């Protein structure tokens, strides 16, 4: 591939190479007649400024990395899309690095982004090691973490504990006495925070509790497996809190299709995230809504705040999810959190 060069534009316009550069540099001085000739030649040839090269020369690439494991899955897909749009509105160029959770994978992603002089990195997945933060600091690269728990970077966090506590109290307030958590064994900070807060609040309300991990991934198949564990016998929960909506979909399908139970009459279900499928007629899931647009906007705001205040202490933003009531559970008025 051979892109049209500034030199070709200069030759067609009959001007110097520097005149072409000045024409496409904001605020640079160039005679009106020269500008017209350059713009006409550029349009004729299909010329575009090499923003990547210009950014590297100025040490401002406008590239921003988004590091995420399985960005196509559930809420993360919507958050990734919202981040890309928010970054583009800012004038940045998002680069998605689809990586895993291991230290080696995260460091490899960081090396790639620093090598391409990315202006900043937004991390959605994994638990970055100390070396990850040290390398970013040495290179002056801001880090924004979403849903993580590290102390050395700026964060956007969901109100996991608040929402999970509300879920347990809403179940108890509606007279449900055996409360369960359907979850994964992924062990992410968000998942663990939701599990712990729900169980603590349920036990404080005098309810029996149980936790079932259906698999490593926080997806539909994990929900199906967790449902099978929780409802294997005749002594089963009458309410289930699912640590995300995909897990809730699997639990609901098990209850209805494999156990012949009614939702919510026999078993109430609450999810977390409010992905679009939660409103589908097959599920009509009561769930806590995380707004991906709000979280993305907050992350980009933190990025800019860090660029403007490089030596400030870590910034934190907390976004509290709201309960969206549908058919899988109807809270008693005054007990919905």
Helix amount, in percent?
40-55%
What is the radius of gyration computed over CA atoms, rounded to a whole number of angstroms? 26 Å
Treating each run of at least 4 consecutive H or I residues as one helix, how many helices? 12
Q: Into how many domains do the coordinates divide?
A: 3
Main beta-sheet strand count, sense and barrel state? 6 strands, parallel
CATH architecture of the largest domain: 3-Layer(aba) Sandwich
Main sheet strand line-up: 2-1-3-4-5-11
Write down how many β-strands occur, each being a DSSP E stretch of 2 or more residues. Answer: 12
Unreliable spans: none
**Average pLDDT:** 90
Give a nutshell description of this structure.
It contains twelve helices and twelve strands.
Describe what this molecule looks like in 3D:
- Residues 4-58 form the HTH lacI-type domain.
- GO terms for molecular function: DNA-binding transcription factor activity; transcription cis-regulatory region binding.
- It comes from Endobacterium cereale.
- This is LacI family DNA-binding transcriptional regulator.
- InterPro entries: HTH_LacI, LacI/GalR-like_sensor, Lambda_DNA-bd_dom_sf, Peripla_BP_I.
- The structure is a single chain.
- It is built from 12 helices and 12 strands.
- The chain has 3 domains: 6-49, 434 Repressor (Amino-terminal Domain); 63-158 and 292-320, Rossmann fold; 160-290, 3-Layer(aba) Sandwich (Rossmann fold).
- Helices cover 44% and strands 17% of the residues.
- The strands form 2 sheets. It has a 6-stranded parallel β-sheet, with helices on both faces. A 6-stranded mixed β-sheet has the order 7-6-8-9-10-12, with helices on both faces.
- 46% of the residues are buried.
- The longest helix is centred in the first third of the chain and has 17 residues, at 74-90.
- With 337 residues, it is of the alpha/beta class.
- The model has no long low-confidence stretch (mean pLDDT 90).
């Amino acid at each position: 591939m051979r892109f049209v060069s500034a030199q070709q534009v200069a030759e067609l316009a009959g001007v110097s190479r520097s005149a072409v550069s000045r024409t496409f540099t904001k605020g640079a001085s160039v005679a009106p007649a020269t500008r017209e000739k350059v713009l006409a030649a550029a349009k004729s040839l299909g010329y575009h400024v090499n923003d990547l090269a210009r950014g590297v020369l100025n040490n401002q690439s406008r590239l921003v990395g988004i590091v995420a494991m399985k960005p196509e899955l559930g809420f993360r897909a919507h958050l990734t899309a919202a981040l890309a749009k928010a970054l583009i509105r800012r004038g940045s160029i998002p680069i998605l690095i689809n990586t895993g959770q291991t230290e080696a994978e995260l460091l490899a992603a960081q090396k790639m982004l620093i090598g391409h002089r990315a202006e900043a990195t937004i991390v959605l997945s994994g638990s970055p090691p100390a070396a990850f933060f040290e390398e970013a600091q040495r290179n002056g690269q801001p880090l924004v973490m979403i849903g993580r728990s590290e102390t050395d970077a700026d964060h956007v966090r969901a109100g996991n504990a608040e929402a999970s506590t509300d879920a347990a109290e809403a179940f108890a307030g509606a007279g449900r006495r055996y409360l369960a958590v359907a979850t994964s064994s992924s062990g992410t900070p968000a998942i663990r925070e939701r599990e712990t807060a729900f169980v603590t609040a349920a036990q404080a309300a005098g309810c029996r509790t149980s936790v079932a991990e259906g698999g490593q991934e926080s997806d539909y198949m994990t929900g199906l497996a967790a449902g099978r564990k929780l409802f294997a016998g005749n002594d089963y929960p009458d309410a289930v809190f699912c640590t995300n909506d995909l897990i809730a979909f699997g639990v609901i399908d098990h209850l209805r299709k494999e156990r012949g139970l009614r939702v919510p009459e026999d078993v109430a279900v609450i999810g977390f995230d409010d992905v679009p499928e939660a409103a589908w007629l097959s599920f009509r899931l009561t769930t806590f809504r995380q707004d991906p647009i709000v979280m993305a906007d907050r992350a980009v705001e933190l990025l800019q705040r860090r660029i403007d205040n490089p030596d400030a202490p870590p910034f934190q933003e907390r976004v509290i999810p709201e309960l969206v009531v549908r058919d899988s559970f109807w809270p008693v008025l005054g007990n919905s959190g």
